[in-house]
Amino acid sequence: MSDQEKEQPVAQQEQDKDASLKPLHVVGSVFAAGLGVQSSKNRERDFKQGRFGVFIAAGIIFTLLFIGTVVTVVQLVLKGSGN
User: Fold this and answer.
1) Which residue from 36, 43, 76, 82 puts its CA 20 to 30 A from 5's CA?
2) Alpha helical stretches, state H, 1-83
3) CB distance 34 to 59 below 8 Å
4) Quick check: 73 and 52 in contact, CB under 8 A?
5) For position 70, what pLDDT does the model report?
6) For the stretch 51-81, what's the b/e string if a residue is b when 16 or more beta carbons lie within 10 angstroms of its beta carbon?
7) Where are the domains of the chain?
């Protein structure tokens, strides 16, 4: 095995660390994790390429939107039922 072949996996690992996730991937991962359907492959990708703070912020936003949606739906149902 040549030196160049040995260095290639290391270079690939460094490139993977530098490559950050696109916003759509973060949103999709947070949505899937919030619903409990995150795949192992995507979870591993998130841990390797994602930033902790981005996922925390996206998770908080997702949670607030989810709670707001549930509250709104409940209010609409109660208003429609005459209460």
Assistant:
1) 43
2) 3-18, 23-35, 40-49, 52-80
3) yes
4) no
5) 98
6) eeebbeebeeebeeeeeeeeeeeeeeeeeee
7) 3-80
62 CA to centre of own chain: 10
| Structure token pair of residue 34 | 């919030």
Contacts for 43 with CB less than 8 Å, ≥ 6 apart: 29, 33
Do 52 and 76 meet the contact criterion of CB atoms below 8 Å apart? no
pTM for this predicted structure:
0.64
Tell me which DSSP letter residue 22 carries.
P
* Gap between the terminal Cα atoms of the chain: 76
